[in-house]
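Notes, Module 5: Reading structure tokens.

Key idea: the token line is not a picture. It is a compressed description, and you learn to read it the same way you learned to read a sequence, by spotting repeated patterns. We will look at two proteins. The first is printed below with its tokens.
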Amino acid sequence: MIKIVQLFVIFFSLTKMYAQPLTSATAVRPGNVFDSLYITTGTIDAPDYNANIPINSLKIMERKTNLLLNNDITGKALNGPYALVAGGSKGIGYAIAQALARRGYNLILIARHADSLLVAKQRLEATYQVHVEILVYDLSKEESAGAIAKWCSEQNIQLKMLCNVAGLGGTQDYLSLPLDSLRYMVRLNIESVMGLTLTLLPQLENNSPAYILNVASMAGFAPIPEKNLYSATKSAVIFFTYSLRYQLRKKNISVSCLNPGPVFTKPSIKKDTKEKLGWLGMKMAVSPERVGEIAVRETLNKKLIIVPGSLAKIAAALIRILPRRLVVAFYGKAGEK
């Protein structure tokens, strides 16, 4: 009986966490229609419809950095395996990139902002004996997936792993955001995952055994009124992963889904978690570095559903076995407080 009570305490605390507004992981530009949105796992922060620029022997941001980026695959790791991390310049995406680099994977990092990609590239190449390619794309745009796949094919990339990390959520959600903002969330959270996966499948199959890691959230395990569309998109990623894993079972491509709970990607998130959840939230939280390491390790071990942290695993299991009407009622009441 005591264990059951403890489980419900964990569950109710988790409902408070996902029903309340969360702190931004990456700041958005002031005055933009996306000011209410925050990045959950990637680095895309606000739409810039001139952002699809592959960094390929081009001088970019010269007045800011005076750097010449030459990405003609002539570096020190020409023949090694590559992993592509969409949303890999900061947060969980960067932690996943680090974990892959430790294992000798060369990297292709994709995000919307060249400055953060440059920093990530320099850090990774200085620390690990790997080659890092960086591509600037708005992954919500329909043409991005095809352009990225074409570039990988033209460069003869030995692609062994695809990591779909970029995702968007926010303090406002369905009924409180304009339609274009909601559509942007759907395009980034779902369509980019579907598009990149489909267009890169031929290269993954040619380099099998290969791996796909989709990043969702514990919010995807249950309907959350205050996070209606966000939780729905993350649920879609989870279900997509289940089905895709079955579809690719004979192609020697393993598909996994990462579903993290609290992750302290910046000090303000740690402060917010401590204030809202107290000691339980602090105990449940997992550092980005640990999340990245667990995600890569378990993906390479071909695990389907990955939930970092013991307490988070218990909470996730409880959420999935309780009746949906009860779960949504819990989340709804917590969000009204």
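Here is the second protein, with the sequence above and the tokens below, as before.
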Amino acid sequence: MKPAYSQARHYGLGCSLEEFKVLFFDVPVSAWFQANNHPVLTQFMLLVTHWHSTPGLLLMVAAIAVWLARRGMPGWLLSLALSVPGVMLLNVGIKQLVQRARPQFDPPLVTLDSYSFPSGHTAGATALYGFLAVLLLAHAGHRRWRAAVLPGALLMVLLVAVSRVYLGAHYPTDVFAAMVEGVLWLALVLYGIPALRRRRVGEVA
């Protein structure tokens, strides 16, 4: 336990000076998960994180896109295409801009050579489940279903976020920033762009 915490603490201090500053709770929280992991829970977290990797997210987007296309919902289809792939591309750009290195532990649960801030898995999951929540709220007729939509979406996003910190792939601020990123991008796609389009149409008319 102590070697993992010591390694993370040393790395966190170095990162705060050389790259993008970690907050005071980033290293202790990450190290706590590493020191208290369990083999069964680790396998579950790996399943969650692999399912929400880029191929997994795109597979889910493709399935939803087919469903929307068959039901003749081109507006929702366009919003989906802009929401999830769009936030994934945005995330890559932010990673390159910030260039925060990932946490390092000995031994590591996962090994990645890309940048850490913000979490791509979490940003993609936030956009995907946020989109599904808005879609279901707009079309779900039963009150019980509507009441379960937002808690269900939030639960899935939090599960992905926790899996990334648990596995040592990200600091807590990486996943928190990714959730904010996903929410803001989704709001822009679903509400900002249509509002701007309506405003331009009104000006032309």
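Summary for the second protein:
- The two ends are 67 Å apart (CA to CA).
- Confidence is low (pLDDT under 50) at residues 1-19.
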